[in-house]
Amino acid sequence: MQTIIIATKNQGKAREYREMFAPLGFEVKTLSDFRPLTINENGNSFEENATIKVEAVVKNLNLPAIADDSGLVVDALGGRPGIHSARYAGDHDDAANRAKLLRELADVPDDKRTAHFHTTIVGLKPDGKKLVANGRVDGHILHQEVGHNGFGYDPLFYVDQLQCSMAQLTPEQKNAISHRGNALREFMKHFDEWWQG
Ligand SMILES: O=P(O)(O)OP(=O)(O)OP(=O)(O)OC[C@H]1O[C@@H](n2cnc3c(O)ncnc32)[C@H](O)[C@@H]1O
Ligand SMILES: [Mg+2]
Q1: Residues 51 and 121: beta-carbon distance below 8 Å
Q2: Which residue in 115, 124, 140, 196 has its CB near the most CB atoms, within 10 A?
């Protein structure tokens, strides 16, 4: 079995990468398997932030790695929280972030609550060879939390395609339609060439 390093501290993301890479014969390691690293996500785009995460790991470990930067893009908020989704309410606190989102959208009617999740995945090798892929999923922001699966903003995100909240989906169902799943499927189209090249 081969090993792939995902440069993430987020256990929800790590679980999804394990689920998606296991059938491909890869064991997934994450930042928690190595000595602590400080990563300053101060880029101006999803791709810049994903690159900052993966560069930190590749420089330290001298091994190929993958990172993703993701976020919730809400139309009524002019695209916020976007690249600031993790620290939208201050600390990296999923429950506080969801509460702030509900407050900010309190007076926004259903037809104006459109949103999408976005993921940019960046793969980087010690020789500098980079692979980038993007994915999204469209939906609406609910008026209260629905469902207990997933993580982050999932209980507030109504998936248009499946007519239920993201947190009501099984892991397999989420990976099949999610921003991260879609980005990873794009990424895998060129993975062999990047990994072996
Ligand atoms: O940077 P790493 O260590 O990977 O972990 P993170 O949680 O900080 O991840 P991001 O920087 O990409 O921030 C993304 C934010 O959007 C949320 N998010 C990302 N993917 C999500 C998903 O699939 N469902 C719900 N919320 C998600 C997540 O909870 C964070 O608050
Ligand atoms: Mg982060």
Answers
A1: no
A2: 124
H or E stretch including 134?
strand 130-141
Judge contact between 155 and 148, C-beta under 8 A.
yes
Distance (Å, whole) CA 181 – CA 119: 9
Handedness of CA 97, 139, 179, 163 (dihedral sign): positive
- CA dist 110 and 97 (Å) reads 20
87 lines ligand 1 (CB under 6 A): no
**Domain CATH for 147:** 3.90.950.10
Atom of ligand 1 nearest to the CA of 67: 4
Q: Which two tokens stand for residue 31?
A: 């930042």
Number of domains in the chain: 1
ipTM: 0.98
pTM above 0.95, yes or no: yes
Tally Cβ neighbours within 10 Å of residue 141. 24
Give the active site residue among 33, 68, 69, 192: 69
Question: In terms of Cα–Cα distance, which of 166, 142, 132, 187 is closest to 20?
Answer: 187
| Cα angle 22, 138, 110; round to 5 | 140
Which residue range(s) make up the domain with 156?
Answer: 2-196
- Residues 66-81 have pLDDT tens digits of 999 999 999 999 999 9
